[in-house]
Each structure stands twice: as structure tokens, then as C-alpha cells.
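Summary for the steering committee. The consortium agreed at its last meeting that each partner would contribute one worked example illustrating the joint modelling workflow. Our contribution is presented below. We chose a case with several input lines so that the handling of multiple components could be demonstrated. No manual editing was applied between input and output; the record is shown as generated.
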Amino acid sequence: QVHLVQSGAEVKKPGASVKVSCKAPGYIFTTYHIHWVRQAPGQGLEWVGLIKPSGDTETDAQNFQGRVTITRDTSTSTVYMEMSSLRLEDTAVYYCARDPGYGGNLDYWGQGTLVTVSS
Amino acid sequence: DIVMTQSPDSLAVSLGERATINCKSSQSILYSSDNKKYLAWYQQKPGQPPKLLIYWASIRESGVPDRFSGSGSATDFTLTISSLQAEDVAVYYCQQYYRTPFSFGQGTKLEIK
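What follows is the complete predicted structure of the assembly.
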């Protein structure tokens, strides 16, 4: 079992930024890709981006217009997903998940973090 | 970007009967160099994160009951539950991981008839 533990719920105003964390055993970040996926209330799953063991990242730049930054702190075994210029439609549960090395399927997921954007 | 389209959007099946969910990709997700289809299936129950069921289109994740199976070609895929159990009520998603941005189907809600 791999436990990915995410930070708690956040409430933000439009235009603000939010930073969600995902903590896991240290070897996870040096071995596997970690992805972020979000799910708006009552909606489907939407891929946000990933960070590789090298520290390189890929995001859905077109969909998020460069508003997403994924980073990691290896000293605390934590990955972060920061989204800026928040909009009402960014309200969603944000999940981190592990890619076991097969190219992008996701076998272990965090519990999810609800980000609410409200004026 | 690759668009994934599932059908139907919802499905009601009697206990013990077969359930079939379809997923179509807007382009081939068969990688010629390894002959693998970069397609996964997930099950999501209310209030829970998704659970990986199938990867490489047809490989069952460890611990997943063998009533779940996946198949497909380069663009058309199927998730089959051979004998529906009450605990299979959930929303099912396909996902392509052939190319970023990775993408999911819109989901299929499976209920008991």
C-alpha cells in the first residue's frame, strides 16, 4: 500500500492562488511520476499535470493557460500543485496520484482536497 | 489533444447480468514500438478517489475481481463486467495515457436494474 496524504480543504476568492500538498514516502518521488487530477462537483475527471522523478513537469498548459505550477520538496517528501488566478470554475476536488511506471495509468490516489472558489 | 468518448452515459443492469461500457479515442492510442494500447479503466464510488481496474487496455490490476475485463483495438475499447454485483454500482472512466495532456472519458454511471 502507498499512502498519499493531501492537505485540507481550502476556500479562496476569485483571482487568488491556492497551493495543495501531497505527502508520500520519500522513495515515491524519486522513483515515480506523480500526477494531479481534478473533479468539479458532480463532474468527471480532468488531468492537470505531473512531476517526474527528475523534477521535470508537464501540465495541460492550454486548458489552464499556464496557471498551474507543480513542484516538490524532497526533504519533506511532498509534492505541491499551485494554481493561480483562480476562477469560480476551478472549484473542484484535486487529487494527487502515483503513476506506477507504465506510462500514465494511476494506481494509488490521495484522498482529495476540495478547493472552493467563491466571492 | 486526444478526446475520449464513452457510451452510454448511464447503464442499468440486473444483478448477475453482463454490463458493457464502451470508450472511443479520437485517434489511435496503440503505440507501435511496443504494441501496447495506452488505455486504463477506473471505478469511482461516491466520496472516494478513483480506483484503477485495468491498464494496457486489458491487464487487470492486482486484487481486481476477474469478472472485470477489458478489450479493444487502437481506438475502440470495452470494459465488461461479466456478472454484475451490487458493489459494482459506481461511475466508470476510461483514460488515455498515450500522450499528454492525458484525458478521461466523461464517465458512465452504472446502476442496478
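The interface with chain A takes residues 1, 38, 40, 42, 44, 49-52, 55-56, 61, 93, 95, 97-98, 100-107 of chain B (CB under 8 Å). The mean pLDDT of chain B is 97.
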